[in-house]
Amino acid sequence: MATGKHPKPTPAKKTEAVPHTKTPAVLEEPLSAPYEQTDPPDVEQLGKSTWTLLHLIAATYPEEPTSKEQADLKQFVKLFGNFYPCWFCAEDFRGYVQTNEPDTTTQDKFGKWLCNAHNEVNVKLGKPKFDCDLWKKRWKDGWE
Ligand SMILES: Cc1cc2nc3c(=O)[nH]c(=O)nc-3n(C[C@H](O)[C@H](O)[C@H](O)COP(=O)(O)OP(=O)(O)OC[C@H]3O[C@@H](n4cnc5c(N)ncnc54)[C@H](O)[C@@H]3O)c2cc1C
Questions:
Q1: Is domain 65-141 classified as CATH 1.20.120.310?
Q2: Which reaction does it catalyse (predicted)?
Q3: Where are the chain's structural domains?
């Protein structure tokens, strides 16, 4: 309940600009200041990061997956092809998945399926093929 002891604050007039001589210190730095001014990734950067993610998914996929895990991973691979943010890469990848059904029955089989899918792109780009018997050394166990 108002006692009348304190003067009421005068409301700012609607037309009056808010005094703004100096930006408060907290806003002087650009919002992204702690981060590098990095440009959006190009097709190569996107590809390298994505292969890392996909091969690591293979490396952490169960060695003996349940039927649900097998179905989920297969669906993930197919949906991934619908949303990969490089349209011409995605188009070819979808074609590859259509003619080479992802084998999600074991970790090793999926790791090799993915390795072959990656090799398909390597060949298209004139890069050497990776030896798919070594996929676990590169992405799971290391070379020792
Ligand atoms: C689904 C998909 C489709 C793509 N399609 C295209 C395309 O159409 N055109 C295009 O220009 N780029 C495409 N890219 C990107 C391209 O594949 C490369 O990622 C990019 O050129 C960078 O190559 P990189 O030499 O750095 O190594 P990357 O090919 O990105 O490979 C990263 C690392 O993976 C390891 N590696 C290489 N081959 C294999 C393999 N077969 N199995 C397991 N490990 C391997 C190597 O240690 C390598 O250093 C695609 C990427 C993805 C994820």
A1: yes
A2: 2 R'C(R)SH + O2 = R'C(R)S-S(R)CR' + H2O2
A3: 65-141
Residue 91 is predicted with a pLDDT of: 98
Task: Using most ligand atoms within 8 A of CB, pick from 118, 124, 140 the residue to mutate for ligand 1.
Answer: 118
CA-nearest residue, atom 15 of ligand 1? 47
Note the residue count of the chain: 144
Nearest to 103 by CA among 86, 115, 92, 90: 115
Q: pLDDT tens digits, residue range 80-104?
A: 999 999 999 999 999 999 999 999 9
Amino acid in the structure at residue 77: V
